[in-house]
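User: Last request for today: this protein with pseudouridine-5'-monophosphate, please.
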Amino acid sequence: MPNTATDLSPEVREALASGTPVVALESTIIAHGLPRPRNLHVARELEERVRAAGAVPATIAVLDGRVRVGLADEGLERVARDPSMRKLGHRDLAPALASGASGATTVSATAFVAASAGIRVFATGGLGGVHRGWAETQDESADLRLLSEVGVTVVCAGVKSILDVPATLQRLETLGVGVVGYRTDHFPGFYLASSGEPVDWRTDTPEEVAAVMRAQDALGGPRASLVVANPVADEDQLDPGLHDRVLARALEAADREGVSGQAVTPFLLDRLTRWTEGASLEANLAAVRGNVTLAARVAAAYA
Ligand code: PSU
Ligand code: MN
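Assistant: Here's the final one, the structure of the complex with pseudouridine-5'-monophosphate:
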């Protein structure tokens, strides 16, 4: 149920009440995953894409100590432009509310808020997961555990390729999170069309994804989330050789500079963007665009 800390926009409230499909969008990708000022254009474009595919977008963030589901343009502007926006995972929500802070929500916080608002379908670029070097740092994104608890359908281009992808897939299995490829037999590689890892289940239409969701409902009991792994098109992917070379440099730099905790993911994404002269950014955007459109179609097929 919507809690007393959450404000739904009038448009989102109406859509939920009337059964119009709604797609939740996270805001960390806007505030901390994409360079300014392009991020604001992207935030608006993603909402437009959801609308064009027949659903209502609900970008989620925390503004002045209130959880907001569905941002007016002024809210999108704040998220994109204000450098003091914090990065809020699920566990950060309560302290942010109590102190009146403002911040962008990660997949973990967004999935939690979306589920409690009654929004089933959610789109992002790439999920967080198990970081390389986990044995030393124990760095595993809270995205994974939250997905095991909240029962949303998240459309993504797999997990970020800066991570340990096989280990992340293993954790998704342990946590009971469903994974289906979308028009692929391979788990996508975020910037790359394939991570090289296989997926056990494949879907080819939004209706087939919706059928999996209905089967989850029919099974009853606590529902884990469903990851719909939607690869970037081959022609939009980052050159795999360039990806591997630049990622190796970026991981080395993070290590040398002692980057840790919440800063790791934004640091690596930024170095990839800079050191590929923007090519990784274009691949990231192509992935997010495709995910947002597919999420809207899935939401419509399920509605
Ligand atoms: N997808 C993108 N760019 C991003 C993210 C996802 O294309 O920046 C964000 C999501 O908000 C995700 C977060 O939850 O990165 C993971 O951060 P961490 O590894 O610190 O949990
Ligand atoms: Mn982390």
